[in-house]
Write a structure and sequence with these properties.
Length: 376
């Protein structure tokens, strides 16, 4: 069994609290991504799993065994580093066989295992090359082969693709998913790249300021963020602040800074006079040319008859983003943006009057402290 349990682990360096009271259970055989901005504590957390760092407090369990004080070389883990850490004076084959040699495997056995692993990562034929002759993607494959060659129960990957260009990163993401499925090992993967985490992970653990703020499957953390930090970190969104003016059984009405009134799902915390910020994700919004006969005075949002609201504005910018087009709309002092697939593009141009629409059920509501208001 290669499940991992972290119980209240913290790590401080003098006055710096790098990791603060993290509890986390990683399932046997899953690929869990630790995701967060630079300096949030994700790499330090991984290093405590590996044994390269010792927690200031708390305990680390691997396969049910307390390994908190166990040296890194005594743990059945292997790590792939961001900078590959290949030996430039050894051949590719010698690099992959290095861990096997340290473990005491015989020459023939370790060379055969190394060759088999190089074939698995599509690097057969490069056995006698020097790492200095390889591209970044090839170096990453060799580093991955070296870590897998020792057949660890747990593979730890610390931003392993960050030095690769976009195309190579995407190729290696698919390769890593295939390798994880084939080898049936527990993978812990550290990244600051949201797209990478969503592509790879069975579950994502999101960290901020040394704390683990949410753990869940990719769709869960994206659609149901626990707080404003998670919502903001996982992708671009429109944040609009306002104050509740009235409430009924289904909705509260939020008077916004730019004069619009937006309906929000009713909840215990949604009461007249309360201040909130709502998130309108651009991919959940619709844009269409405005029908002058349907316009309301000013920019007040109105019910559109389909469980949502609309607001009128003028297109200030259209930004082509490859697979999508972003429309930046001035709604009377507040700029909102909507993202639309190029296959659904409307031909709307800058300067046109438009209506932005959304479903009220897609709105997320946050308190001033950043915590999420739930409508359950």
């Amino acid at each position: 069994m290669s499940n991992i349990t972290l119980e209240g682990i913290s790590k401080s360096y003098g006055d710096l609290q790098a990791v603060d009271d993290v509890d986390l259970s990683i399932r046997d055989g899953e690929l869990l991504c630790l995701l967060g901005p630079s300096g949030c504590g994700k790499s330090t957390t991984m290093r405590m799993i590996s044994g390269l760092e010792t927690p200031t407090s708390g305990e680390v369990y691997i396969g049910g065994e307390n390994v908190t004080d166990q040296a890194a070389y005594d743990r059945d883990t292997s790590m792939v580093f961001q900078n590959w850490a290949l030996f430039p004076y050894k051949t590719v084959l010698e690099n992959v066989a290095f861990g096997l040699k340290m473990r005491g495997d015989g020459t023939d056995e370790r060379q055969q295992k190394a060759r088999d692993m190089l074939e698995r990562v599509h690097m057969d034929g490069y056995e006698e090359h020097s790492p200095t002759d390889l591209s970044g993607g090839q170096k990453q494959r060799v580093a991955l082969a070296r870590s897998l060659a020792v057949d660890p129960d747990v593979l730890l990957l610390d931003e392993p693709l960050s030095n690769l260009d976009k195309r190579l990163r995407e190729e290696m993401q698919i390769e890593l998913k295939d390798i994880h499925k084939e080898f049936d090992k527990t993978f812990v993967y550290v990244t600051h790249n949201q797209n990478e985490a969503f592509t790879l992970a069975d579950r994502i653990g999101i960290m901020n300021d040394g704390r683990l703020v949410q753990v869940g499957e990719p769709t869960e953390v994206y659609r149901n963020p626990t707080n404003r930090f998670v919502e903001e970190f996982l992708g671009d969104t429109n944040f609009v602040a306002g104050e509740v003016t009235d409430v009924n059984d289904q909705y509260g009405r939020l008077s916004t800074e730019f004069g619009a009134t937006i309906r929000v799902p009713a909840a215990d915390a949604v009461e007249p006079g309360a201040s909130f910020t709502v998130s309108l994700r651009p991919e959940f919004m619709q844009i269409r040319r405005s029908n002058g006969a349907n316009e309301r005075e000013g920019t007040a949002a109105r019910a559109d008859g389909t469980g949502g609201d609309t607001v009128v504005g003028s297109v200030e910018n259209t930004i082509y983003r490859g697979s999508s087009i972003r429309y930046v709309v001035d709604t009377g002092g507040e700029h909102l943006f909507v993202e639309q697939s190029v296959t659904d593009q409307t031909g709307i141009e800058e300067g046109e009057q438009v209506e932005l629409g959304w479903n009220t059920d897609d709105i997320l509501v946050f308190r001033p402290d950043g915590s999420r208001v739930r409508d359950e």
